[in-house]
């Protein structure tokens, strides 16, 4: 089968990580001085779509590596419901607003409302001249390197921008940890080296999981909907994986937190719904093993995405196992855990012969504000709700 544009984009991800990591480390060090980092008492990360998914995946890294409480919230929720409460909080809040284009109305609004509430407003964006960058006191630039000529300019479900945003958030977590004394200089540098090494793990994961994704797409040809599940940092991966399936093939794909599957999707009428369980091989292990057993017992077709040497990969009852290479620490595991879902989405789109984004047949145009959805032209409020 010919490699589709989405496949080709996935193939570029390891090289992109290798190319970008040093510049992202430099940017974080230059933009976030130690005295500011020591004033921070809590971190919020906000965004929409893939940017929100990257934020969810970064919560664990912020807690473990930076030693700071962190909350990821969708931009609408942060700006209009969380920001008004920040003024009552002790210490300074760091607000990381993520948008690759820098033009998403809700994310720009969230950053501006966070600034009004006293948070340190940081724009994490691929566009240094965007409205989001203009609204931030600090800008962390995440522009990705140009794509190869054969896929440049094609409208493809986003993978590179998501990984770039995720990588920057992990770099910021390490930088905050070192600046605040949570990590020694050696520990921080070791973590940066480990993060750079994820490029090799990503390449190996793609090589192993690509034929497995094709096989799963063939086996699930008749499926009408899909469920993706994860916990902790890989709840973000589950959200992202469901989003890519929706964008690539138009299939109904629902992401659910791992525990919540047993409280909700367990009762779904369709017996063979493909259920993809995503694990970092850490704190989620015992529950994922139980959920895999339960899903299989009630007739679900189960796939497990997990580090190759972990219990979920080796012991879970499942129809498919997508092994993640490199034994990543749990907080970095989303960088490899997102790859099988991307590969499956690419093969699924080919199997059902569906154009990406359904050729924009759903009413949202690729230009401007996204048609009637008005993602980039929506009305913004400019004062904190009372």
Portion of residues within helices: 40-55%
Name the poorly predicted regions: none
Q: Quote the beta fraction.
A: 15-25%
CATH topology title of the largest domain = Rossmann fold
Which outline best applies?
Answer: globular
Individual helix count: 14
> How does CATH name the architecture of the largest domain?
3-Layer(aba) Sandwich
Strand order of the biggest β-sheet:
2-1-3-4-5
In the CATH scheme, the class of the largest domain would be Alpha Beta
Roughly what is the average pLDDT, rounded to an integer?
94
- Indicate how many domains the architecture comprises: 2
The topology string of helices and strands comes to: HHHEHEHEHEHEHHEHEHEHEHEH
**What is the number of beta strands?**
10
User: What is the straight-line distance between the termini?
Assistant: 57 Å
* SSE-based structural type: alpha/beta
Q: C-alpha Rg, in Å?
A: 20 Å
Q: CATH homologous superfamily of the largest domain - what is it?
A: Glucose-6-phosphate isomerase like protein, domain 1
Sketch the major β-sheet: 5 strands, parallel
Task: Explain this structure.
There is one protein chain. The protein is of the alpha/beta class and 386 residues long. The chain has two domains: 5-183, Rossmann fold (3-Layer(aba) Sandwich); 205-354, Rossmann fold, CATH 3.40.50. Helix content is 48%, strand content 16%. It contains 14 helices and ten strands. Strands 2-1-3-4-5 form a five-stranded parallel beta sheet, sandwiched between helices. A five-stranded parallel beta sheet has the order 7-6-8-9-10, sandwiched between helices. The termini are far apart.
């Amino acid at each position: 089968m010919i490699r589709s544009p989405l496949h080709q984009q996935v193939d570029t991800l390891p090289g992109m990580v290798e190319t970008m990591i040093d510049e992202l480390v430099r940017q974080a060090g230059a933009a976030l001085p130690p005295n500011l980092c020591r004033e921070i008492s809590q971190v919020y990360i906000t965004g929409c779509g893939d940017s929100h998914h990257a934020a969810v995946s970064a919560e664990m890294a912020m807690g473990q590596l930076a030693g700071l409480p962190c909350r990821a919230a969708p931009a609408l929720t942060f700006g209009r419901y969380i920001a008004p409460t920040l003024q009552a909080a002790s210490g300074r809040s760091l607000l990381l607003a993520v948008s690759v284009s820098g033009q998403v109305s809700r994310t720009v609004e969230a950053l501006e409302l966070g600034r009004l509430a006293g948070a340190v407003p940081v724009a994490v964006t691929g566009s240094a001249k965007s409205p989001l960058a203009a609204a931030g006191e600090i800008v962390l630039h995440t522009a990705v390197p140009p794509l190869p000529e054969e896929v440049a300019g094609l409208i493809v479900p986003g993978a590179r921008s998501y990984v770039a945003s995720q990588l920057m958030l992990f770099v910021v977590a390490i930088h905050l940890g070192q600046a605040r004394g949570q990590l020694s200089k050696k520990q921080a540098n070791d973590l940066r080296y480990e993060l750079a090494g994820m490029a090799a793990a990503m390449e190996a994961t793609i090589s192993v999981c690509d034929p497995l994704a094709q096989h799963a797409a063939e086996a699930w040809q008749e499926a009408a909907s899909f469920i993706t599940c994860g916990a902790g940092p890989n709840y973000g991966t589950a959200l992202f994986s469901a989003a890519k399936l929706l964008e690539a093939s138009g299939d109904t794909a629902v992401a659910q937190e791992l525990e919540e599957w047993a409280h909700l999707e367990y009762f779904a009428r369709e017996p063979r719904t493909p259920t993809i369980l995503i694990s970092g091989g850490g704190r989620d292990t015992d529950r994922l093993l139980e959920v895999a057993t339960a899903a299989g017992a009630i007739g679900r077709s189960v796939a497990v995405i997990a580090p190759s040497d972990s219990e979920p990969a080796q012991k879970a009852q499942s129809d498919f196992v997508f092994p993640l290479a490199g034994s990543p620490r749990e907080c970095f595991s989303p960088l490899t855990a997102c790859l099988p879902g991307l590969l499956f989405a690419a093969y699924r789109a080919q199997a059902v012969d569906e154009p990406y984004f359904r050729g924009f047949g759903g009413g949202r145009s690729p230009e401007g504000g996204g048609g009637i959805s008005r993602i980039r032209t929506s009305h913004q409020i400019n004062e904190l709700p009372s």
